[in-house]
Amino acid sequence: MNWIDHALKYSANRRRLFITGAGLAAGAAAAVYAPYALGQAEAQQTTYANPVVWQDFADVEVIRVGDVFYMTASTMHYSPGAPVLRSWDLVNWEFIGHSVPKLDFGAKYDLNGGRGYVRGIWASTIAHRPSENRFYWLGQIDFARSYMYTATSPAGPWTQHAQLPRAYYDAGMLVDTDGTMYVAYGNSQISVAQLSADGKTEVRNQQVFTTPSNIGTLEGSRFYKINGNYYIFLTRPANGQYILKSSSPWGPYTLRQVLLDMPGPIAGGGVPHQGGLISTPNGAWYYMAFVDAYPGGRMPALAPITWTADGWPQVTTVNGAWGQTYPFPNLTPHPVPPLTGADTFTTAALAPKWEWNHNPDNTKWTTGSGLRLQTATVTNDLYNARNTLTHRIQGPSSTATVELDLASMRDGDRTGLAMLRDSSAWIGVRRDNGVLRAVMWDGLSMDSNWNTTGTGTQRATADLCDARVWLRAKADIRPGSGRQAQFSYSTDGSSFVPLGPAFTLNSNWTFFMGYRFAVFNHATQSLGGAVTVKRFEVSTP
């Protein structure tokens, strides 16, 4: 895989931990951490803190339609894919939907005869076509072909619009002022494709740039037309950002470095890179990058941009670094519901903050009066179990608490709350011979080809006397090695008892996605059992 061949080891510049409340200007963290509807205090916000979203959103692209901003990100094997987030101020973001409602790319994405781990939705692109008032999403799958989805509303419904035979690797889509659709893409060899008027076929393709050997790899294209010039914004993974400029989409292009080895805003995290440029209705410019911050993943960070007289972007730094805080954009702060909080699953559909591990079996789950998860797979391998539902972890640390009704479990069933990645652990419940027991497992593991190498070991157990239990995982996802999660359970929802040893999180980057909280229910003997998730909550200290 050429993406591994060209990947550079993520840097881990360790800097002083920025402590909220010890030097953070008043209101700076409000947009990231504070509850919804802060009222007068929110309206007085004058600064913002990075990362603007301390959750795993990689390969971000931000577009603006009128006075509203939309952001997409990579989701790999999670379904639905390609989330769409919305903001009015570039700082406060909320989920509104997904551009890819199902990973409809083969049986492996169903955990049926194969697995799609670390495949699926990679760096992809979203655009708005004003002439149609229509949104488009484009991404390549499995290096084989590209798929386009479209919607009249960014919240959906999105439908598949086209399959294109060329794999547009790390695509960036541009809708020109005359409505023509272009795609910039490639790894080191950067090409531009022109699509047909309906966006369903390619009508022209040309290589426009070869990365100089002294730079190495450039990829992650974002394509813009700004003040009559064409720009292709490119990343040098994982520590640099470059930009190409031309008067024509077909070149010739001139290259300039935007940043290299710039210290980032998260202590212990990497260099902000990739992402894209965005303007406000007032004409101000910003760069939304992401910061490698494993074990949590890749976190969006925002910095102001200025332009040189001859049309090149420059990052506004603070003491030579990407700022931990900046002045709030010249936009009215617009609070939105937080990315944390509780869900009681009373609506007919899942909230868009939820993503399944691979496509679910939709005959085996329902919502309305809690989330009822019927067993969908007979397996002793959590990585093979369908209908595992995931939620991003809020950084720098947060706690997930799930309330489960176990009355419909059957012998051999396993349900619980996992810290899910290529090295995993979980707290849960097993039923055997009619007896329910709380258990903690660790040692679930994958190799570098994402095959299971360990199905886990039970490390602790406790008697349960009721069919109602609360499970809790507290996760420290600050960047660096040695970060841990602790598990506990409760039989009354208020008094929690630790269970099992602390679990040390894997901070390697090669799985790409960060850890997630995951709720699962699978069988080891036969199907037919079920649990009901009465409540799920993510809270911060």
From TrEMBL:
Q: Which family does it belong to?
A: Belongs to the glycosyl hydrolase 43 family.
Q: What is this protein called?
A: Beta-xylosidase
Against Gene3D superfamilies, the record matches this protein to:
2.60.120.200, Glycosyl hydrolase domain, family 43
BP-aspect Gene Ontology terms:
carbohydrate metabolic process
Q: Which domain of life is it from?
A: Bacteria
Identify the species of origin: Glycomyces lechevalierae
- Residue intervals of the Beta-xylosidase C-terminal Concanavalin A-like domain: 343-538
List, in alphabetical order, the Gene Ontology terms for molecular function in this entry.
Answer: hydrolase activity, hydrolyzing O-glycosyl compounds
Keywords from UniProt, A to Z, are: Glycosidase, Hydrolase
Looking up Pfam families in the UniProt record yields: GH43_C2, Glyco_hydro_43
